[in-house]
Amino acid sequence: MFNGILINKDDAGYRAAVQEIDDAGLPEGDVTVRVAFSTLNYKDGLAITGKSPVVRKFPMVPGIDFAGSVVASSHPEWKPDDEVILNGWGVGETHWGGLAQLARVKGEWLVPLPAAFTPRQAMAVGTAGYTAMLCVLALERHGLRPGDGEILVTGANGGVGSVAIAVLAKLGYRVVASTGRPAEADHLRALGAAEVIDRAELAAPGKPLGKERWAGVVDAVGSHTLANACATTRYRGAVAACGLAQGMDFPASVAPFILRGVTLYGIDSVMAPQTLRLEAWARLARDLDPAKLEAITREIGLGDAIATAGALLEGKVRGRVVVDVNR
Q1: Is the separation of the CB atoms in 57 and 103 below 8 Å?
Q2: Beta partners for 111?
Q3: 314 and 214 in one domain?
Q4: Under DSSP, is residue 143 helix (H, G, I), strand (E, B) or coil?
Q5: What separation in angstroms does the CA of 87 have from each of 5, 183, 223, 293?
Q6: How far apart are CA 204 and CA 246, in angstroms?
Q7: What domain range is 46 assigned to?
Q8: 314 shares its domain with 207
Q9: Other C-beta atoms within 10 Å of 141: how many?
Q10: CA dihedral 134, 247, 124, 186 (to 10 degrees)
Q11: Which of 59, 62, 113, 152 is most buried, most CB within 10 Å of its CB?
């Protein structure tokens, strides 16, 4: 038996609870991992609360991330005691996830824990931080460099935004952070933001084209915010879109793309190929200041995860939440 969060949906309704789970219930997979830490991402909040149909099979252990050590493996790449990370691959949605003390998964879904990180630090990064780095890589591949102009980061107090600010600032970019929590401005500046703006400047319906400002954008918000970010991106600039905190809609026009040559990159972290995952984690190990990572991290026990998931969806959580699944 092991402890974990189990989500059920039946005639009694949708419910998530911390409970003992029989090892026999673990799903198919060729690697079994003793989980040390997991985390709470926006998607985990949706899964635990049931506010969006993230979970597609029941019962389900949520948690799209985990870090831990291999306890059993029939996969050629992994052996007992190897330290590993998992992000995405439908874990916590269609396959039991990381908010439990044990996980069984396919070996090809795992990546080795970088030497620069402890398991706790890796989960402080989590899918949010790994996605932020995928955004940075997209902007770099587009050809953007620190001297090209300002980079806008929306949803700045969230996990993606916080890590994106810290990484971009360390790389030398001038970062402008957009947030709905102006009281957090000093915190965002400490992460490396040169300027903090109110999300209201971007969140309402806007014009097809606005005044050119951003060389690049990391957007975790979607909807009108993404549309306005595109409309105010400079000629041949780039926008990396990875989230939908404001909404899944995209009420924009083609004007920024056909009149200014703006490029919109869609960032998918769930099914990203292994080579890209390894590159992202290697860059995080190099370009993310551990002190700044710690500054945006809060640790909770497994028993606190359900209540914290609701607070996360209400925008009351700053940065990253690490879950110690063994307390």
Answers
A1: no
A2: 85
A3: no
A4: coil
A5: 18, 31, 25, 18
A6: 11
A7: 2-113+296-324
A8: no
A9: 10
A10: 100
A11: 62
Separation of alpha carbons 91 and 98, rounded Å: 8
- Our CA dihedral for 209, 210, 216, 221, rounded to 10 degrees, sits at -80
Q: Which helix (H) or strand (E) holds 140?
A: helix 119-142
Nearest to 313 by CA among 321, 301, 303: 321
Type of residue found at 48: I
Q: Which residue has the tokens 């390894």?
A: 278
Same-domain pairing of 200 and 131: yes
Helices and strands (H and E) in the chain: how many: 10, 15
Residue 5 to residue 31: CA distance in whole angstroms: 20
Distance CA 272, CA 287 (A): 20
Q: What percent of the residues of the chain are helix, what percent strand, and what percent coil, each to the nearest 5?
A: 35, 30, 35
Locate all alpha helices (DSSP H) within 212-314, ordered by sequence: 223-231, 255-259, 274-287, 290-295, 305-313
Q: Determine the pLDDT at residue 197.
A: 98
In a domain, 177, yes or no: yes
Q: Does 10 reside within a domain?
A: yes
- At 316 the pLDDT is 87
What is the CA 293 to chain-centroid distance, rounded?
Answer: 14
For 314, other C-beta atoms within 10 Å of its C-beta total 9
pLDDT at residue number 219 = 98
DSSP designation for 114: P
* CATH code of the domain containing 50: 3.90.180.10
State the Rg of the chain over Cα: 20
The Cα 193–Cα 236 span in angstroms is 23
Q: Are residues 12 and 86 in the same domain?
A: yes
Closest CA to 39 of 85, 106, 105: 85
Low-confidence ranges of the chain (pLDDT < 70): none
- Let me know if 326 is exposed, middle or buried by CB neighbors in 10 A (0-12, 13-18, 19+): middle
The residue with tokens 């995080």 is 284
90, amino acid identity: G
Return the biggest CA–CA distance within the chain.
60
